[in-house]
Amino acid sequence: KYRDERKIKVYGILNKELKGKIKPFKRTYQRYASFPLPPNMAIFRDKVVIASWGEIPTGILIQGKDIAEQYKELFKQMWKISKK
After folding, report:
1. Local structure of residue 57 (DSSP, 8 states)
2. 17-33 burial by CB neighbour count: b if 16+ within 10 A, else e?
3. How many CB atoms lie within 10 A of CB 80?
């Protein structure tokens, strides 16, 4: 609801086995990869969050413009080679 009200777009790359199994929310764009993906990751402004949703959820927050830019570039490259 928060993202929809603020018209925030979300881009995600999922494993190809999930195609058709997860219905995207409004303004959510998904592509599918046939290659191994890094763990759950989110990039927003100068922050990168890496999360594991195992038995005990664990997460790491990295705040830094340079690191966030590097992760954004990695995401862009993975987006280019992923399929709709």
Report:
1. -
2. eeeeeeeeeeeeebbbb
3. 8
pLDDT tens-place string over residues 18-69: 888 887 788 899 999 999 888 899 999 999 999 998 999 999 999 999 999 9
pLDDT of residue 84: 86
The residue among 6, 44, 9 whose CA lies nearest residue 30 is: 9
Residues 10 and 28: their CA atoms lie apart, in Å, by: 5
- Report helix, strand or coil for 75: helix
> Which residues on adjacent β-strands are paired with residue 11?
29
The answer to whether 41 touches 62, Cβ cutoff 8 Å, is no
Q: How far apart are the C-alpha atoms of 72 and 80, rounded to whole Å?
A: 12
